[in-house]
Write a structure and sequence with these properties.
It contains 11 helices and 12 strands. By secondary structure, the chain is α+β, with helices and mostly antiparallel strands. The chain has 3 domains: 93 residues, Beta-Lactamase (2-Layer Sandwich); 77 residues, Helix Hairpins, CATH 1.10.287; 156 residues, Heat Shock Protein 90 (2-Layer Sandwich), CATH 3.30.565. Strand 9 and strand 10 form a beta hairpin. Bound molecules: adenosine-5'-diphosphate (ADP). The site of adenosine-5'-diphosphate has 20 residues, from helix 8 and helix 11.
Length: 358
């Protein structure tokens, strides 16, 4: 049986011409289409239906709908189309290795003096996933902003209630307000940055960069933080090594990784930056002998807002977006970022960049 052969068996010549065209259109559609007859057997379908119902070629013809999919709402919708000639729109979930979600439009159709029913399945799996990601992001952002804001409001009220005249504490309260306002500022900066990187709003200008010089610049910027915790910053990249990248963005990636290495190191720890050449790839690694990350968290730490200890990350000035920014920047360079870590021993973050072809 050819696709839709039963459906388009009109005698009129105009219809004869349009028949193969319609058949071709249905073949190219991403939506799955099936038509059933009065006895609920499948009369016609397009190739997309094989994928939707997880069937191999030839495994749909003549089958009853109930043999192909078990879903009461779907069966009821087809029944009302056949028996009451009523249209329906339903949501359907097809289980499997990859669960898929569909919006399905079911309607009665008339052909060869009989009534059948057509079902058009729109795959909304990806749209729903994106919607969930968007909602999660929004709820995370609101939560992250509300925490410092609550603190600011509380301290302002305390000052208004008289603490402004308390010469011993008023400066301290102002400092707390400033710290929380800075945290909000930092968070908004990171959100805007990430959103601009993700939407392709930044253009890279890659060129050959002297890597040790760039590392020293990052070290200088973070030296105060490292010194405060007596952490040694070591640059083990040879003086004349070069990599091919956007200088500003590479500095941003290294700053995020080295800043984390310092933050999550123990006092008197060591942070080492190294370079390894592997075939077509240059691998820049930032290693620390700090607290490390356990396996359960390791595969999620590049997600936006994922932190092993949310409260602590906030306390030490983190937004939970640093690694997500590094991931997107590395990918924009055609590279990748990865991590290996042992809890209690330390972590190694590696940025892989495509090597410059001669
Ligand atoms: P944050 O602003 O919290 O540092 P990141 O996206 O940079 O956000 O990092 C996400 C989380 O990954 C951190 O909160 C921390 O739990 C973990 N992490 C990142 N780098 C390290 C590291 N070098 N050692 C241990 N944990 C780390």
């Amino acid at each position: 049986m050819s696709f839709l052969s039963t459906l388009f068996s009109s005698k009129e010549s105009a219809e004869k011409t349009s028949r193969p065209i319609l058949s071709e259109i249905l073949k190219t559609m991403r939506e799955s289409v099936i038509v059933i007859g009065r006895d609920t057997r499948i009369l016609a379908f397009n190739p997309a239906a094989y994928t939707a119902f997880g069937r191999r070629n030839g495994a749909l013809e003549g089958k009853r709908l109930s043999e192909v999919i078990r879903d009461l709402t779907l069966h009821e919708a087809f029944r009302t189309a056949l028996e009451e000639t009523i249209n329906s729109d339903i949501e359907l979930e097809i289980p499997g290795v990859e669960k898929r979600k569909y919006d399905v439009h079911i309607a009665p159709i008339e052909f060869e003096k009989t009534i059948g029913a057509i079902g058009i399945f729109y795959d909304v799996t990806q749209t729903e996933l994106l919607e969930r990601v968007r909602q999660e992001f929004l709820s995370n952002v609101s939560h992250e902003l509300r925490t410092p804001l609550t603190s600011i409001l509380a301290f302002v009220e305390t000052l208004e209630d008289g603490a402004i005249n308390d010469g011993e504490n008023n400066r301290h309260f102002l400092a707390v307000i400033r710290k929380n306002a800075q945290r909000m500022h930092h968070l908004i900066d990171d959100i805007l940055e990430l959103s601009s990187i993700e939407s392709g709003g930044i253009t890279l200008a890659p060129k050959s960069i002297k890597l040790p010089t760039l590392i020293e610049e990052v070290f200088t910027n973070l030296s105060g933080k490292a010194a405060a915790r007596r952490i040694k910053l070591k640059n083990e990249v040879n003086a004349d090594e070069r990599v091919f990248a956007d200088a500003v963005r590479l500095e941003q990636m290294l700053t995020n990784l080295i800043d984390n290495a310092v933050k999550f190191s123990r006092e008197k720890g060591e942070v080492i930056v190294n370079l390894e050449r592997k075939n077509e790839t240059d691998v820049i690694s930032v290693s620390d002998n700090g607290e490390g990350i356990s396996g359960e968290h390791l595969h999620r730490i590049f997600e936006r807002f994922y932190r092993t200890d949310r409260a602590r990350s906030r306390e030490i000035g983190g937004t939970g977006l640093g690694l997500a920014i590094v991931k997107h920047l590395a990918r924009q360079h055609g590279g990748e970022v990865s991590v290996s870590s042992v809890l209690g021993k330390g972590s190694i973050f590696s940025i892989e960049l495509p090597a410059q072809s001669e």
